[in-house]
Amino acid sequence: MSSSPSETAVHPLQEFADRVADAVGGTAEIQFDTVKVRVSAGSWVEAHTMARDELDLVFFSWLSAIDWANEVASGDSLKDEVDERIELMSALSDLTEGMMVILSTDLSSDQPQIASLVDVYAGANWHEREAHEMFGIHFEGHPNLAHLYLPDSFAGNPLRKSFPLLSREVKPWPGTVDVEAMPGRNGSDEPSTENPDA
User: Is the pTM of this model over 0.90?
Assistant: First the structure.
């Protein structure tokens, strides 16, 4: 039995993904036509420096994080357990072919900290301030981790899953509620023949 072409086909971004992973010392994956390369937290700055200098990925577009936590302060609990951590990500691109990669690393949930990218990409300044404020990540060497949005006296990090959001207690998170049938439907795919005015 022979393999179908879809089983043996190589993703068009695979060569780029492998080249980035080799250069920065990480592991590559491709999901939804997006290249993501995971690196260790200790090589975060070095990986970005290599991406900029060796791969010509000179455009830094964003940095953010995901709080992978099993315990949530509000809303429904997770259906599947996850390895608890803070995943930090940045997006880098070139300016000629439009090739983009997301560099990713994992940080401790308890005291997330990592070296700042400001000396590699000046544009990281604002993004690291936001991630510090919203997720509680400390960026070592950042020139000024002042709040962008919240008052200095604000306690907590609003994008951590342990932070209680009153709006989520009052109204369920979109996408997790049961959806009722549309009016005028009788449970089948056929329109209802009942006269609602009768």
Answer: no
Cα–Cα distances (Å) from 40 to 45, 107, 112, 197, in that order, read 10, 9, 14, 66
How far apart are the C-alpha atoms of 173 and 53, rounded to whole Å?
A: 42
* pLDDT value of residue 174: 61
- Weakest-pLDDT range from 44-58, 121-135, 178-192: 178-192
Indicate the average pLDDT of the chain. 86
- In sequence order, what DSSP letters do the residues of the chain get, joined into one string? -PPPHHHHPPPTTHHHHHHHHHHHT-EEEEETTEEEEE--GGGHHHHHHHHHHHH---EEEEEEEEEE-S--SSSPPPSS----EEEEEEEEE-SSS--EEEEEEEE-SSS-EEE--TTT-TTHHHHHHHHHHHH--EEET-S----SSS-TT--S-TTSTTS--HHHHHSPPTTSSPPPPPTTB-SSSSBP-S-TT-
State the pairing for strand pair 113-115/138-140: parallel
Q: Would you say residue 66 has pLDDT above 70?
A: yes
CA–centroid distance for 152 within its chain: 26
Using a 10 angstrom Cβ sphere, with 0-12 exposed, 13-18 middle and 19 or more buried, the burial of residue 90 is buried
